Structure prediction request, 332 residues.
Amino acid sequence: MLRELILEAPGKLLMRTPRSESRPLQAHELRVSTLYGGICGSDLKVYEGHMAHAVYPVRPGHELLAVVTEVGDDATSFAPGDRVVIIPNTFCGECDQCRRGQTNICCNKQSLGINVPGGFADEWVVASKYAVPVPEAVPDRVAVLVEPFAVAVHAMQKVQICEGDEVLVSGCGTEGALCALVASARGAHVTVTDIQPDRLRWIHSILPNVHPITPDQVADDSFAVVVEAAGARASVESAFAAVAPGGIILGVGMAVEAAIPMQRFVRKEATLYGSIIYVYDDFAQALAWLNRDCELAAKLEACIGAEVSLDAFEEAYSHALSGKPGKALLKF
Ligand SMILES: [Zn+2]
Ligand SMILES: [Zn+2]
Prediction:
């Protein structure tokens, strides 16, 4: 019996037999069967009713590894049996941003599992332009993490990291950990900070080369790059103190607002970037990198905190909701 998860309303998550996915494929579509799904902070915001653009009922799931089961007439670069990761944010290809290649900020963007059906289902249909083939050597449990990893890959491309650069990552959730992973793989000397000691211990167990410190130990004017991944006002504001003169602050966290100390910012001639999700190339590059660097792939896989079968989905959500470090995975 085919299964899918449905979030009927905030807090009301259930499993059911899907209703509509056995329709014939359009030419550009693929039918896929999810193998693994990851649960992240935005899923929890939708679950808790804290995501302004969420619609209910919605099928959750945007961190997805799937296998192709059927191919539409025009999707001939794919074949049944191919493993694919899914780009879970749509892009129109026609707006100004899309035409500049910035499909991540498409003004017609929709997000799987938030305002269009996601991929926590045994069988579903996706346009082939959102499917990215997974190289054979990349294991399932690594491939399913490519979506959050691509966020970090995209963000870290805003800055040129050189060997030995001092990089501070503020906030050690999954996205902070992945930015630290990318920065240290590029040769930076990475310091991480978080208000939760268990997160610092967790990230240090995965990345023994990073230097974990508490927020009060962060020295002023010391970091060529500060990655703000906590999404908290205090973390944003302290980034302006921590950044070295001429340095860069990279915002990936989602604090609602914070005060910018303009004199400090201007006098340091610092740069502030925002970075949101990824484009197709970030997925392709992330997969190619993981394909040739097993050590990187192993560290990414080590970010998994729990793996639970789909039938026990409540356990996976409660792991994620507990705030325990490490990604919760659903195995289909
Ligand atoms: Zn996510
Ligand atoms: Zn667009």
